[in-house]
């Protein structure tokens, strides 16, 4: 059996263990034991999102297994758009919790808002996740989806042709047996910050005026998720631009705006929020790195 076949089987096992039936991330944490070349190893990961915690594997081997796991998870979810949406929402919530150091014991997946949580102090918290993106990144995502799973480097010319003149903004790099599309540098997208802030403002108006439920929570968190996007937020000052726009408005005192994103200079996941809550420093870093 080749190494790639073994990695594929391990990735398949991880994907098959994924479930939305866990009531919290503590219960969903799992340690997968494996043996490669007669040496025992482990991978610790989350069975809701496949977020990777710890492993003693080399970075390259772990990346290959994780790539297979993601591919098999995509196959498992198939065309179920609801469950794909849940996965992105749980991913944003998990990242927020890892970065803020909180561990909510009870997480209920609901329709409005995305999550209703009861913390250890008995407070009732509503969390609504919204994806922050830009038009250029939407094109990157669509191209990635179109060619996902195809072999690197054979697929590169077709991707570059599909990206057209925007190909100059991206690098197509190998990831396991396939590829990923990364920004070459932090693109100047200041004009998009207002658009991102407007996304968050619209979410506030939706839940404060249309659904009229923000008042029913001890805290209501509107979570701007830039993890799926490669370029929506690439460093801390860009997150600060969005929060500065939000500060010009008035909101209910129990409302929190939070942003979670990857800082590409340090390759670290960061969280920023306003108003400042006790759970966070001004810019909190996650203790774990994602795949």
Identify the overall geometry: globular
Helical residue percent? 25-40%
**What is the structural class?**
alpha+beta
Unreliable spans: 287-291
- Distance between the first and last residues' Cα: 25 Å
What is the chain-wise order of helices and strands? Answer: HHEEEHHEEEHHEEHEHEEE
Annotation field: number of helices: 8
Number of strands: 12
Could you tell me the radius of gyration in angstroms? Answer: 20 Å
Mean pLDDT: 87
* Widest β-sheet, arrangement of strands: 4-5-6-9-10-11-12
Report the portion of residues in β strands.
Answer: 25-35%
Sheet of most strands? 7 strands, mixed
Short description:
This protein is α+β, with helices and mostly antiparallel strands.
Q: Would you mind describing this structure in some detail?
A:
This protein is an alpha+beta fold and 291 residues long. It has 3 domains: 3-78, no CATH class; 87-133 and 189-285; 135-183, no CATH class. The chain has 8 helices and 12 strands. It has helices at residues 3-17, 25-28, 59-77, 81-100, 135-147, 156-163, 190-210, 236-246, and strands at 29-36, 39-46, 52-55, 106-109, 115-118, 124-131, 170-175, 178-183, 219-225, 255-263, 268-274, 284-285. The longest helix is centred in the last third of the chain and has 21 residues, at 190-210. It is globular, with a radius of gyration of 20 Å. The model is unreliable at 287-291 (pLDDT under 50).
């Amino acid at each position: 059996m080749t190494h790639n076949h073994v990695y594929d089987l391990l990735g398949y096992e991880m994907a098959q263990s994924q479930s939305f039936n866990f009531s919290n991330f503590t219960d969903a944490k799992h340690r997968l034991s494996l043996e490669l070349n007669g040496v025992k190893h482990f991978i610790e990961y989350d069975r809701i999102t496949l977020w990777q915690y710890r492993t003693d594997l080399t970075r390259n081997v772990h990346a290959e297994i994780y790539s297979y796991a993601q591919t098999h998870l995509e196959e498992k979810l198939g065309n179920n758009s609801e469950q794909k949406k849940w996965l992105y929402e749980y991913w944003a919530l998990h990242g927020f919790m890892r970065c803020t150091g909180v561990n909510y014991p009870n997480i209920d997946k609901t329709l409005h808002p995305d999550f209703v949580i009861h913390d250890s102090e008995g407070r009732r918290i509503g969390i609504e996740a919204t994806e922050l993106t830009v038009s250029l990144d939407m094109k990157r995502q669509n191209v990635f989806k179109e060619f996902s799973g195809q072999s690197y480097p054979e697929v590169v010319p077709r991707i570059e042709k599909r990206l057209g003149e925007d190909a100059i903004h991206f690098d197509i790099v190998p990831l396991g047996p396939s590829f990923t599309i990364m920004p070459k540098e932090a693109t100047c997208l200041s004009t998009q910050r207002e658009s991102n802030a407007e996304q968050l403002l619209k979410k506030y108006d939706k839940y404060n005026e249309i659904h009229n439920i923000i008042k029913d929570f001890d805290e209501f968190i509107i979570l701007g998720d830039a993890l799926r996007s490669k370029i929506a937020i690439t460093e801390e000052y860009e997150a600060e631009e969005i929060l500065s726009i939000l500060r010009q408005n008035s909101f209910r005192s129990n409302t929190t705006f939070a942003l979670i994103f990857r800082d590409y200079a340090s390759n670290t996941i960061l969280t920023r929020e306003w108003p400042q809550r006790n759970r966070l420093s001004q810019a909190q870093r996650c203790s774990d790195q994602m795949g």
